[in-house]
Amino acid sequence: MTKPRIALISGSTRTGSINKNLVNAMAHEFKDLGASPVKIDLSKYDMPIYNGDYEAENGVPKSAKNLIRRLKNCEGVFIATPEYNGCLPALLKNTIDWTTRVEMGQFTTPIYGIGAATPGGLSGIMALKQLHFILTRLGANIVSSGLGVGFAGKAFDNKGRLIEERTAARAQSLAAKMLDEIARRP
């Protein structure tokens, strides 16, 4: 049996992003559990802000089609979202919107997990709720527990792993749930 491939996406492309740190920590968790992490950097998938007139004139950006292909080639997808003013970032929403213009298999085929890292103590709860709502509406199978990492500036060690024991246990549990769901699929 081949190792399940898990795409890991940060909704932030900023250098030093705490959500990129969360992606790296989850990559460790998936690798420890025998999966093959596949990091996807959204800065490599340039897409204009979605506009129906742009689409009518230019079609769907090739980068959206390439991203869909990569996602469908994975058995699982983990998304780490920042929370900007109580919402998920425009980059992540725009990426989701463009990919829906082609097909929906990138949402209905893999098993999804979601997480958020924030500098404050609320752990991105509002952005997680919004991301869960959007993905569910698109037909994604999302594992029952999301992962919130509050005070994320101090949450990771120099090897990219989560420091706080309960948060690390929740990260491991989320990864295990995703892999269990993947293993149960026919």
Task: Note the beta-strand portion.
Answer: 15-25%
CATH superfamily: Flavodoxin domain
Q: What's the multimeric state?
A: single chain
Taken from the alpha-carbon principal axes, the silhouette is globular
Structural class, from helix and strand content?
alpha/beta
Count of helical stretches: 7
Low-confidence stretches: none
Written as H for each helix and E for each strand, in order along the chain, the element string is EHEHHEHHEHEEH
Which CATH first-tier class would you pick?
Alpha Beta
Q: Give the number of DSSP strands.
A: 6
Word description of this protein:
The chain is an alpha/beta fold and 186 residues long. 44% of the residues lie in helices and 16% in strands. It has one domain: Rossmann fold (3-Layer(aba) Sandwich). Strands 1, 2, 3, 4, 5 and 6 form a six-stranded parallel β-sheet that branches. Helix 6 (125-137) links the parallel strand 4 (111-117) and strand 5 (141-142). The model has no long low-confidence stretch (mean pLDDT 96).
Q: What are the main properties of this structure?
A:
single chain
What is the element layout, followed by pairings?
Layout: E1 5-10, H1 18-32, E2 36-40, H2 52-58, H3 62-72, E3 76-81, H4 90-100, H5 105-108, E4 111-117, H6 125-137, E5 141-142, E6 147-149, H7 165-184
Parallel strand pairs: 1-2, 1-3, 3-4, 4-5, 4-6
Helix pairs in contact: 1-7
